Each structure stands twice: as C-alpha cells, then as structure tokens.
Amino acid sequence: STNSDDSFTSAREWLQICTSSHTSCRPFQQDGCYRPTRLLHISELGAEVRLRESDDMPVNITYATLSHSWGSVLPLTLTGARMNSFKQGIPLPELPKTFQEAVQVARRFGIEYIWIDCLCIIQDSAEDWKRESVLMASIYGNSHLNIAATASRDGRGGCFRPRRPSALHPVKMTIHDRDFYLLDAEMWWEAFEKAPLNTRAWVLQERLLSPRVLHFDHDQLVWECNELTASERYPHGINGLIPAPRFLRNRLDSLLQTALLPGQELFHAWKPIIRAYSSCALTKSSDKLIALHGIASRIKDVLKASYSAGLFSTNLESQLLWKVLENEKATRPDQHVAPSWSWASMIGPVSILPQWDFLDTRGEEFTRQFKPEEINEKILCRVRNKHLFGTRDVTSMVSHEKLEIEGYLVPVHYIALSETKDWKEIKYRPKLGYDQDSSTLPSEIWPMAMRSWQWSIDEGKAWDAVEYDGGSDLSVLVATRKGDEASSFHLWFEHDFRSEAFKREKRWLLPVYSVTEWQGVDVFDMKRYRSLNGLVLERNGGPGTTFRRCGTFKLKAELNENGPWRFWNSALRFDAVEGVEPVVCDDVVVPIISAEQPGDGASDEERSIKYGRRDGVEQYVVTIE
Fold first, then answer.
1. R_g (Cα) of the chain, nearest Å
2. Three-state SS across 416-475?
3. 485 by DSSP, 3-state: which?
4. H or E element: which one contains 107?
5. Phi first, then psi: what are they for 305, rounded to 5°?
C-alpha cells in the first residue's frame, strides 16, 4: 500500500534532503511567521480536528496543505452557520476519506496544522471566498508540505492505494551476458500528468506555488520540489530521464530565482504554464482568471509589471497574438470572463508568444547562446492606454478591460473560390475582395479556406498536397490590382469559419509585429525567415471604432523573398475604414518600401521591406473589447 512504512521512509528522506539543502525550496515568506486566516488543528491523535483562526494560533507554526478534486460529490464544507461547531471540533468519521487520510499523512510527518480549502474558506460567503482565493500564493507558498490526492477523482477516493511493490522495479533483461534495465520514465510521466487531480486547473498553481508536493498516485508516491522530482520507482530523481522543459515548476523557479535573457522571461515560464493551464478543466468558467492569480502575482512581482486578464504590461503587444490550438474544440464561455484580446476568453488549449516557438526545438545550448536582438522584433502597433493596464481590481473574477490600439487596418473579406477557377484570370483580373464605397481600390486581399491543397497563383495550378487538419488554419491570398503574384499566409480563427454567417462578415487585419524566425533540424540546416504577424478583427456591433478579436494571421517568407513587400504594397493603399477616422501619430514604426512600382525584372533587393520610425504618420485608433 502507499500507506506502508517503506513509502513513508522514502518520503521522509525526500523531505529531509529538501528542507536541509535545497536553497530554492524555501517558503515564500522566509521568516516563518505566515499564518493563513484559518487552519485545522490536528496535533491531537484523537478522533477529531478543530478549526482555528489566525489570532488563535502560535506565531511560528508549520502547516500542510491539501490538493484534491471536489468531483461530482460535494464534500463537507465550512459555512457561516457551521463556524462555531467546527471550532468545537469535527469528528474525523464525518470527513471525506481523502481528508481523513490527509490528516493521517500530516500527523505521520509531525505537522500540527493542515489547510483544506472547503474547510478553511466560508463557502457560502462570496466576500470571504474572494478574499481568500487571491491568497493562494501565500497559503501554498508557505506550506511545509502540500499533500496531493493525485489518483482520486473526488473525496471518496482517498490518498492510499493497494499495490504490488514488485511492479515498481524496472524490468531486467540480460543480453550477451550483460544486464539491462528497461525504463519507462517519459511514458510514466505522461500518464502521471493525466492523473485525475493533475488535469484540474486550480491544482496547477497549487503544484507550482508549493515549495514541495507529495503526490499519492495510484501505485506509488511521487515527490516534486524545485530541485528534485522523484518517485518510489526512481527514488534518486527522474530529472535526467525526462526533457527539462516538461518540468513547469523548474521553469517558474528559474524565473523567480535568476535573471534570464531580456525578453525571454515570459517565454521561459509563462508560455508553458498557459499551455498547460488552458488544457486543464474548470468546473466554473468564471474561475478562469482567479484560479491562476497566485502564479500571475508571483511573476508580476518579478517582472515589476502590471497584470490584467492573463497578460503582463511587459511586451504587451507581443502577447496579443496567442492562438487557439484546437479550433474545433475551442469555444467561448456562455458568460463573459475576459475581453476578446485575452486568451482567457477561450475555453480550450491556447499557445501564447508564438514568435519564441523555435526555441522549444533548439535545446538548452542554443537557448543559452541565443541573443534576444537576433529575433529583431518590430512592434507595428501601440497600446495607447497601457498606463491604465491592470489598474482595475485584478482580484475580480471577470475582466472587462478594453485596449485602445493604434496601428494599420487592412480590410478583408471571405470569398469561397472553387477549385475549378481560372487562376490566371484571378491573377490578372482580380475581383474586389472587399465591398468598399469606392470602386477604384488599388489592391485587394482574398482569404479562402483550402481544404486539402495549397495554390500557387503564378503557376495557375495546385501544388504540394497537404493534410487538412480540421483546425482553423486558412490559406490567404494577397494580390495587387497591377497583377503581382499572390502571397500565401495563414489565419487562425476562434469562430466556426465554415458557417455561412461567418463568410458574410467583414474582417480587418491589424499587423502587430514582424520578427525573424529560425527553421531547420540543426545549426547547419537552419534557415531564417521574416514573418509578419497580426490580429484579425471584426466589428463589435455597428459601425464605429469598437472591435473584437476573432483570430490571428501570419505571413512568413525567407529573407530573400518579397512576400512582405507585396503585402505592404497593397495594404498601405487601402481607402479609409468606415466609421474610423485616421489619427496623425508620432514615433510610429513604419514599413519602408524600397521600390513601390518595380518593373517585371525587379530584383529582391528592389522589393525589400525595412522598418523605421517616423513622425506624422496616419494610423487608425480602435478599441478592442
């Protein structure tokens, strides 16, 4: 059983090593004086526990916390009416099995107090819940040990499980008189991450904020702290057996403890956390922001930045280009949780900061040597009200914050083009892709869904059959009225882009940044690309300056290709956007087109794009809700 003496001997060894020698596993408040508002006093070996308030506790105390899944069965909870009776004593048999066994674990480690959310937060008091729910960084960050009922779906499952100790040993094989041991560390870790508790969104920050966690898995104990991840099968650690980026708490700790390369802080810690968090389940979609508040507040303090709705004021514009990873599964919640510019407005896995994705595949050595300036990020829009960002109540369960952004707006329209179109006719006699008041537009942009083919307009035929993944990836064509070649780039939508209603709606592209990316297997096969990235917007109501985000777009070309030239050559000559008056702005990053009207024999250098800063540039100012 995972309640055996052998199991607890291993756990005590991990705890002793951690508390005596791990400098990065210290409590959040290192003077040892932090006391949660309420704790359960469990020091007596009797058959009951007592609720105590902070002013009724000693100054220096050691307490444990419990991570558990409520599940579909509501456990015993603290209410205003039960406060006095809980202070008198709660008989252990009245507690769910998971709570009873967590008390046993704490007592075996000599810990006198334990914090359990549903017994230490007044569940029928919205005021108490709001006050306590934003203290998770302190409550879990100062815990001596976080006990995790990892294998249980609800309070009936308990912590302890029967098991066969022999099943923990690696399989031994003898080949040519040599002994080999089969290890399944990575496969086991994937299964562990999918355990019932570890798929809950609230639990992610509990795991990351606690100095140390003792998991009670289905067949063994698992230890997590900032310097050691171990199990009964791998008692000396599995850190070397699993790729380092898989350990989220190590990434967070390195951000909190050390200085990273400028510009990579959010990539290093926040990006993988959001990827994992957005993949977890929440019973109430309204908890989306508050269930991550503890981690966000820790990172906010390190960055010395403002925070709102899942984004930080540091490099704010760069963070706007998150994207949905599983479009067909992603939805928006029934009730408002966050503005459309925030990833928290979606239910489903999302990825943020895509301009840093290439570092995920390059290894630690490349990441250490990489210089942030090599990404050469050019921000092409500006959040005008950044000084107000995060000044509202960040403890609120929902966010209605609006962003006022100045930048370029390029009108587009969805046009369903059949595979039997005369592509050369489209190239040389393009139809209007957007219904403007003016019938003499100098250029137009056509988005279209490509089910299983990408098209090469200059060849007039299909090429490179590709698998359609059923997601939101659309191929987009950009052409000028002069008959220049079309540029192919991609869109990701948060809507059902196949619906007829979607196809009728007008859209606008808002370029956000241009960056240099790397692609290749190794340093000898690596190519550099220049990509243009931005938001896809739609009206939020009638004509006016208020929009909402409905997707992102990306145009990528090798450094010697002129796709960005074609885009800007078209985009900069569009007529005014209905209901939005241009505003003259200073210190604007502008695309500098080296040859606006090159001849047929123009070279790549003649069609290049560079970026510079200029005053007196007309920009559109829109509000994104």
1. 28
2. CCCCCCCHHHHHHCCCCCCCCCCCCCCEEEEEECCCCCEEECCCCEEECCCCCCCCCCEE
3. coil
4. helix 97-108
5. -125, 165
3-state secondary structure of 564: helix
Q: With CA atoms as reference, report the closest residue to 214 among 425, 51, 50, 2.
A: 2
Quote the DSSP letter at residue 387: G
The position carrying tokens 């959001």 is: 274
Spatial distance between the Cα atoms of 227 and 24, rounded to a whole number of angstroms: 7
Closest CA relative to residue 36, chosen from 115, 90, 105: 115
Q: Is the dihedral of CA 276, 282, 285, 291 positive or negative?
A: negative
Alpha-carbon distance of 536 to 321, in angstroms, equals 10
Phi/psi-derived region of residue 105, left when phi > 0, alpha when psi is between -120 and 50, beta in every other case: alpha
Using alpha carbons, select from 10, 5, 11 the residue that is nearest to residue 111: 11
Contacts of 284 (CB under 8 A, 6+ apart): none
| 570 to 3, 171, 172, 255, 435: CA distances (angstroms) | 69, 64, 66, 42, 16
d(CA 343, CA 194): 23
The two tokens of residue 584 are 């003259």
Q: Are 549 and 492 in contact, with CB atoms under 8 Å apart?
A: no
Q: What is the mean pLDDT of residues 536-565?
A: 77
DSSP letters for 159-212:
S-----GGGGSPEEEEETTEEEEE--HHHHHHHHHTSTGGGBHHHHHHHHHSSE
Per DSSP, helices labelled H in 283-402 are: 293-303, 316-319, 363-369
Contacting residues for 536 by C-beta, under 8 A, at least 6 apart:
412, 491, 493, 507, 508, 509, 510, 549, 550, 551, 552, 553
Across 202-216, b (16+ Cβ under 10 Å) vs e yields: bbbbbbbbbbbbbbb
Return the structure tokens found at 391: 């000044």
* Whether 245 contacts 272, CB under 8 Å: yes
C-alpha–C-alpha distance, residues 331 and 327, integer Å: 8
The set of residues, in sequence order, having a beta carbon less than 8 Å from that of 25 and lying 6+ positions away, is 18, 19, 211, 212, 225, 226, 227
Beta-carbon contacts of 165 under 8 Å, excluding residues fewer than 6 positions away, are: 6
Reduce the secondary structure of 219-244 to three states and give it as a string: CCEEEEECCCEEECCCCCCCCCCCCH
Q: What was the pLDDT predicted at 256?
A: 58
Angstrom distances, CA of residue 40 to CA of 60, 65, 340, 457, 570? 15, 10, 41, 70, 67
- The pTM of the full predicted model, rounded to 2 decimals, is 0.82
Considering only 219-228, 481-490, 526-535, 605-614, which range has the smallest mean pLDDT?
A: 481-490
Name residue, tokens 């957005």: 278
* CB contact at 8 A, 275 and 367: no
Closest CA to 24 of 216, 198, 255, 246: 255
The four Cα atoms 231, 235, 241, 246 give a dihedral, to 10 degrees, of 40
**Which pLDDT tens digit goes with each residue over 353-383?**
877 776 665 555 565 566 666 677 889 999 9
Long-range contacts for 467-470 (Cβ within 8 Å, ≥24 apart)? 470/328
pLDDT at 145: 97
Residue-level pLDDT at 398: 73
Render 340-360 in DSSP notation, one character per residue: TTSGGGSBS-EE--GGGGGGG
d(CA 574, CA 430): 15
